[in-house]
Write a structure and sequence with these properties.
The complex is a heterotrimer, with 1 copy of chain A (270 residues) and 2 copies of chain B (186 residues). Chain A is mostly helical. Chain A is 53% helix and 4% strand. Chain A has 9 helices and 3 strands. In chain A, helix 7 packs across helix 8. Chain B is an alpha+beta fold and 186 residues long. Chain B folds into 2 domains: 75 residues, Orthogonal Bundle (Arc Repressor Mutant, subunit A), CATH 1.10.10; 77 residues, Winged helix-like DNA-binding domain superfamily/Winged helix DNA-binding domain (Arc Repressor Mutant, subunit A, Orthogonal Bundle), CATH 1.10.10. Chain B is built from 8 helices and 4 strands. In chain B, the strands form 2 sheets. A two-stranded antiparallel ribbon of chain B has the order 1-2. In chain B, a hairpin with a 7-residue loop joins strand 3 and strand 4. The termini of chain B are far apart. The chains are: A mainly alpha (270), B alpha+beta (186). At the A-B interface, helix 6, helix 7 and helix 9 of A face strand 2, helix 4, helix 5, strand 3 and strand 4 of B.
């Protein structure tokens, strides 16, 4: 622990500076340290780096020896995690023992070099470790910036049901089907305009005052409408909705709501 | 002077940004928290007013609600925004549709007459729904006991249907040839 | 000409408003839905560019992401905005970030394959954390015993990182020159 603070490991913004420098380390420090590693590859990478070793020429003996010390500490503390480290240790020992044996047959083609495999894995892991660091450096939504989030008040607009003329027809058909009053309610198209005109005339007379008969007719919109309006007046009279009066022949004809007859005297009384 | 104007602009941008990214309305207390230095409430009010001015004629407006200030889409842009995630348009009940159809084809007529055709009572709610939509109105009264109102469809109804007159409603003349199903479908 | 310019301004305001209120990035298809009439993609691009221009020097910027366009607060305003909500989202552990990186660069791949690269088990908690953030998802299954799920990163992950596609991820260090940085820079 003699070195001044100098980060040795990538721990995302938290440089690790207090790592043991050699094998002679109290087990407690080991435990703390091992928690910082993400597994055997990570630890192995650290050891290789720490000893300034050529990653492509790992001296298995030294690394394995050190490694076993760590593994022993792990085994005492956390058995489950130790399994992965033990596996790695076994692999390192296998590599070491192979290298101790004299090489008899030179390269039997496909016999793979366990060292090469380990190096490949270490390199791949290191690559991903660096990539994870790089990704963590990217500006991240929520952490480093906020999305726009203005308000759109849906409730401000009450959505009204949409109705088409066809819906009306459907409703009418359903009605008829249910009531089986087909004949009674058959309506001819021309009758429609009469009833529309009846509504218009009733509205015109809504004030209760007398209107001159001629005022009920819009002469600018053609003969058919005049005829329809006239039929509407007759229909309204028949239904007792309007009162038509004429004091003398050839005098103006006056029309008003039938209800106004009842209402007028009362209105005048007040 | 120069620097104070610059500061003012900076404060305004910070407040505008906070209001645009905040999911909740922000009150003066919240807005003050944005700055390390203490800001006068007066200055905040001026800045908020300046932001409101700056957003004149844009799609959002800065509104003051009970719980604070917040940007929201102006009413006139809602129809466009609705299209992004259209909610299923609500539908009128069969009772409402039948009542409307009866008034459209047979009006003016009284509620009692509508009930006669439908064979069931017409609730006040149904009439109110259609009146509030401004699709039906009372155009007179029948001179019978109680002087019931005579309902007819309005001009607004025709406009909403895209019709020039009631005579453009789908003709029912061919009804005679239709095979009317025993049961009202669905 | 006059009226077409006016229309253009109107289109721009509508799109800007939609982008400011949308909780998700909007792509061209979404933006087209805002309008009853058919808009040319070319016009939309011009308008989006005009909006970007208009927000120069303001607190928000319009960015193009994997799943579309979205307004975000410029990074330099984060210190102010953080004062409003001091609870920072947690920084993910190295285990989470390494798993994420492996899925981002090597995905789709199974949990077993991730563990092989990391040399250590990938806990369910790690996978759950990333799934809940909606950064990774199962996109298929490897046809091996147990049919393990194949994980890949989502568009939302790229969006949250401000990226348009996976090809914009930081380039991987080249294996040959893999020299561990002396100092974790920053």
């Amino acid at each position: 622990m003699s070195h001044p603070a100098e980060p040795i490991a990538l721990l995302f913004g938290q440089p690790v500076t207090e790592l043991p420098s050699d094998l002679y380390i109290p087990p407690d420090a080991l435990r703390v340290m091992l928690e910082r590693f993400e597994g055997p590859l990570d630890l192995l990478l650290y050891l290789i780096r720490k000893q300034n070793l050529d990653i492509l020429d790992i001296p298995m003996a030294r690394v394995t020896a050190q490694y076993m010390v760590y593994v022993e500490a792990m085994r005492v503390q956390q058995l489950e995690l130790a399994a992965e480290y033990l596996l790695m240790a076994a692999m390192l020992i296998e590599i070491k023992s192979r290298m101790l044996l004299p090489r008899q047959t030179v390269v039997e083609g496909d016999e793979h070099d366990p060292r090469a495999e380990l190096v490949r894995r270490l390199l791949e892991y290191e690559q991903m470790k660096l990539a994870a660091y790089e990704i963590d450096q990217l500006p991240q939504a929520g952490r480093d910036f906020r999305w726009a989030d203005a308000w759109f008040d849906r409730e401000m607009v009450v959505q009204l049901p949409e109705v088409t003329p066809l819906d009306l027809k459907q409703a009418w058909l359903a009605l008829l089907a249910r009531a089986k009053h087909t004949k009674h309610h058959t309506v001819r198209p021309d009758e429609l305009s009469v009833r529309e005109q009846m509504s218009a005339i009733l509205k015109l007379l809504a004030g209760g005052e007398y209107r001159e008969f001629s005022q009920l007719f819009d002469t600018t919109r053609g003969v058919p409408l005049l005829v329809v309006s006239f039929i509407a007046v007759l229909e309204l009279t028949k239904e007792g909705l309007i009162a038509v009066s004429q004091s003398e022949p050839y005098q103006p004809i006056y029309v008003r709501l039938a209800s106004a007859e009842a209402a007028m005297p009362a209105a005048e009384a007040t | 002077m120069q620097s104070s104007l610059h500061d003012r602009q900076h404060i305004q941008t910070i407040i505008e940004t906070a209001l645009l990214v905040s999911a909740e309305p922000l009150n003066l207390h919240d807005l003050k928290k944005l700055f390390a230095e203490e800001l006068r409430a007066e200055l905040l009010h001026e800045v908020l007013e300046a932001i409101q001015q700056a957003w004149q004629g844009k799609g959002l407006e800065l509104v003051k609600l009970a719980s604070g200030w917040r940007f929201r889409a102006r009413l006139e842009y809602q129809p466009y925004l609705e299209r992004l995630n259209p909610e299923k348009p609500p539908r009128y009940s069969r009772a409402v549709m039948e009542t409307l159809a009866i008034i459209a084809y047979k009006g003016p007529l009284t509620r009692g007459e509508i009930e006669e055709i439908r064979g069931v009572a017409v609730s006040t709610q149904i009439v109110k729904t259609l009146e509030e939509r401004n699709w039906i109105e009372v155009v007179g009264h029948r001179e019978t006991p109680g002087r019931p109102g005579l309902y007819a469809t309005t001009k607004a109804f025709l406009d909403d249907m895209g019709l020039k007159s009631r005579s453009e409603l789908p003709p029912l003349a061919e009804l005679g040839q239709l095979i009317v199903p025993e049961v009202a479908d669905q």
